[in-house]
Design goal:
The protein has about 260 residues and is α+β, with helices and mostly antiparallel strands. The chain folds into 2 domains: about 110 residues, Nuclear Transport Factor 2, Chain: A (Roll), CATH 3.10.450; about 130 residues, Roll (Nuclear Transport Factor 2, Chain: A). Helices cover about 35% and strands about 50% of the residues. It has 7 helices and 12 strands. Strands 2-1-6-5-4-3 form a 6-stranded mixed beta sheet. It has a 6-stranded mixed beta sheet with strand order 8-7-12-11-10-9. Helix 3 runs antiparallel to helix 4 and helix 6 packs antiparallel against helix 7. The longest helix has 24 residues. The N and C termini lie far apart (about 60 Å).
């Protein structure tokens, strides 16, 4: 009799958890985001997730969000004025959310759409609109200055890759290769020391600022090199890129780079 009773209690607990509404689950979901935006993106965004933000009005998917959130850490997260709408396995919540990444704070009106998939709420769509506009003219000026820096930095890399790695990357810089490998500064300097840059062209660039101290750049790069000693050519063709920059007391530094073969 006792095993049957225990089984019944466990079943009741599971049914209670599975039957939780979005309103009951929302606080836990936001706790998971605060703990790790990257893991939240991996675990709670649906495969067909779409996000529309106020910066540029561009719709992006799960892949782009994974890359954008990979290096971000939440130091504060608050929400208010929540309103929930639920029907069947769909749930919608809107309200005001304030998120602080490092020293940068964002206050947005938001609408999130969730769908219950295999008894777990999955975020299938998100829409943010900025509530507090922080000196838009200054932001535009900062973006223009960064674009100038980015082009000058590209030319400095062509002139001397090793000096670029020494001067313009963070100490913990990581590079994800188009073959899925991950490496740091020391191996990269050894790889590029005997190489001459023949081509390093950037196209289809999109610049996404996150406050004044984080910039994510996506686009395509066509690059070609030559071994200084053997004169052998190394042609990487065209790759898609995601570069994350962080600003410190000395200026912008490249914190991470991710390359993938372009289709």
């Amino acid at each position: 009799m006792k095993p049957l009773l225990i089984t019944a209690v466990l079943l009741l607990i599971n049914l209670t958890v599975f039957a939780q509404s979005l309103e009951q689950s929302f606080a836990k979901l936001m706790d998971e985001y605060k703990k790790s935006p990257n893991e939240y993106s991996q675990n709670y965004y649906s495969n067909d997730y779409r996000f529309l933000g106020y910066r540029g009005g561009k719709i992006v998917g799960k892949k782009e969000m994974n890359l954008a959130l990979a290096s971000l850490k939440v130091t504060e997260l608050n929400y208010s004025d929540l309103k929930f709408y639920e029907s069947g396995n769909l749930g919608i919540v809107n309200g005001i959310i304030t998120i602080k990444y490092g020293v940068n704070t964002y206050k947005d009106a938001f609408t999130y759409t969730f769908q219950k998939q295999k008894d777990q709420w999955k975020n299938v769509a998100g829409h943010h609109t900025q509530v507090e506009y922080d000196q838009p003219n200054k932001n535009a000026d900062n973006l223009a200055k960064f674009k100038t820096y980015f082009e000058e930095s590209r030319l400095r890399f062509i002139e001397n890759p090793v000096k670029f790695f020494n001067d313009e990357c963070t100490a913990d810089f990581q590079y994800v290769t188009s073959k899925g490998g991950v490496t740091g500064l020391k191996p990269l300097k050894e790889i590029f020391a005997p190489k001459k840059v023949l081509q390093r062209e950037m196209t289809d660039l999109v610049f996404r600022p996150y406050g004044d101290e984080i910039m994510v750049v996506t686009g395509k790069m066509t690059h070609k090199y030559q071994n200084i000693d053997t004169k052998a050519l190394i042609d990487y063709g065209t790759e898609t890129i995601t570069y994350t920059y962080a600003k410190d007391k000395t200026g912008w530094k490249l914190a991470s780079a991710h390359h993938s073969k372009a289709n």
